[in-house]
């Protein structure tokens, strides 16, 4: 039997996730278009999205593939971009860590930026939520986001190069990340990590195959972890 409030919580998650479809859909369409231009067929493009389920990593890998980068560089870059998902998992572990293995595997597959941002915010706002309601909200937010991503990728792949460049669909990428990252800049550790990552990314933009982003991401994470450690030590002192 459904847990009391589980259905309402799932619907709440869907409603909260719907606005992100408006931002991610152009992003997905753009990926489908670029992948088609790169020579991938419809099956390959859809499989790319179904297997990776990570827009930023997909764009990174696709660009490097188009630049004929070595396979190891493509894989390393895509994995580096997705390292943030490890931090997301750690952030949600206190809330979902005791769920069933099946639920955790499904959550791991569906864990993307908007789903994490919405779920983490909701869990912090309602610390007394039951496990059933936490899972319901998580999967509720994931439903429109993931379905929207797959559908928009399929649309982009189908239309291919028919979309005029004047539509400038690439505007969705920076807007999406700003919309998700902005509200999460709640602590000094978050802001320090973002600052160091941005400075390093701009300073190392000259490195080949976008490897500067690897260094920037690592530097940002190390900085954030160090600042958070210093804050904890100060509180405990």
TrEMBL record:
Which GO BP terms apply? L-valine transmembrane transport
Taxonomic superkingdom? Bacteria
Would the keyword Transmembrane turn up in this protein's UniProt record? yes
Q: Where does it reside? A: Cell membrane
* Membrane spanning residue stretches: 20-38, 45-66, 72-93, 135-159, 166-185, 191-224
Is Nucleotide-binding one of the keywords? no
What membrane topology is given?
Multi-pass membrane protein
Q: Which UniProt keywords apply?
A: Cell membrane, Membrane, Transmembrane, Transmembrane helix, Transport
Main subcellular localization, coarse class?
A: membrane
Recorded GO CC terms: plasma membrane
Please name one Pfam family that this protein belongs to.
Answer: AzlC
Family as reported in the entry's similarity comment? Belongs to the AzlC family.
- This chain belongs to which protein, by name? Putative branched-subunit amino acid permease
Per the UniProt record, the source organism is Primorskyibacter sedentarius
